[in-house]
Amino acid sequence: MTMATMLVYYGTTEGHSARIAGRIADVLRAGGHAVDVVDGRAAPRGLSLGPYDGVIVGASIHGGRYPDYVHDFVVTHRLALERRPAAFFTVCLTAASVRPDVQHAPAEYVERFLADTGWQPTQTVIFAGALRYTRYNLIMRWLMRLLARSTGLGTDMSRDYEYTDWAAVERFAKDFSARLSPTATSQPTATTTVP
Questions:
Q1: Which residues are CB-contacts of 76 (< 8 A; sequence separation ≥ 6)?
Q2: Which helix H or strand E contains 144, and what residues bound it?
Q3: Tell me, what DSSP letter sits at residue 173?
Q4: Domain annotation for the chain: domains and CATH numbers
Q5: pTM for this one?
Q6: What is the mean pLDDT of each run of 10 residues along the chain (195 residues)?
């Protein structure tokens, strides 16, 4: 496969989405691609998608919302995103829940984001996030514990919980890499949730 130039653009609140973006970039580089990783909060002014053969956008979701700068990036670059293979990954703690009454929420957040932005990515995926009790301030610790209790996740505030399936993150990156071949199609696919 010919080497492609890739952009991985991400939004993060507590740093876990940055780790996922970094792992995706590592897999793409191992596949021979050139990859730029951009934290949306520090994106260069006038960032153009012109040089990129493929783009992956990802963000964490908190309180049912993605960071505004990720939303704005997609709206600004929607047409350019749709002219090349482009994927969207979501990092959501609720994706780790085993409770049927909350398992639908992450997919609904993705659907609402795509409807709001008008974007039809080639590929979407949802990854479970992390609970970092030891890094939260006291108020956030208690709020996150309430959320964890309501979704059936870990509530021991003396430790952290990581729910991300890293093998699934790597599979996603490899699958996206395969879409960069000249024979790959650019048709949108269904959202996949990976605990």
A1: none
A2: helix 138-151
A3: H
A4: 5-129+166-194 (3.40.50.360), 131-163 (no CATH)
A5: 0.87
A6: 86 92 96 95 92 96 91 97 96 85 86 96 94 89 88 89 94 92 46 55
